[in-house]
Design a protein that fits this description.
This protein is α/β, with parallel strands linked by helices. It contains two helices and five strands. A three-stranded parallel beta sheet has the order 4-1-5, with helices on both faces. A two-stranded antiparallel sheet has the order 2-3. It starts with 7 loop residues before the first strand and ends in a 10-residue tail after the last strand. The relative contact order is 0.29.
Length: 91
């Protein structure tokens, strides 16, 4: 396995706050992707990677402010987590 030491990753849980993303019943994308982003952060940190989150709670952030996080810390990688929905095939 390649060395991960010293790498910095920004994990962006898409949507948040007033921007709910897609939804099904009472399940909102913004909530699911935040949970997924937290799990991803934990996994990456277990590999020795430094992880910054764009949001840790149900907060709205503009696209520009999300990019600023990565640019300010000179991140090696930016991962934006989303769940897409296709109306003609919800599977």
């Amino acid at each position: 396995m390649k060395s991960t030491g010293g790498k910095v990753v920004v994990v962006d849980a898409g949507h948040g706050g007033k921007d709910e993303g897609t939804s099904w019943d009472n399940i909102k994308e913004k909530d699911l992707v935040l949970d997924m982003a937290r799990m991803l952060k934990e996994e990456l940190e277990s590999l020795g990677i430094t992880v910054f989150m764009t949001r840790e709670d149900d907060t709205f952030l503009s696209l520009e402010s999300r990019a600023e996080v990565a640019n300010e810390i000179n991140a090696d990688l930016f991962i934006s987590v989303h769940i897409d929905y296709f109306e003609d095939d919800s599977s």
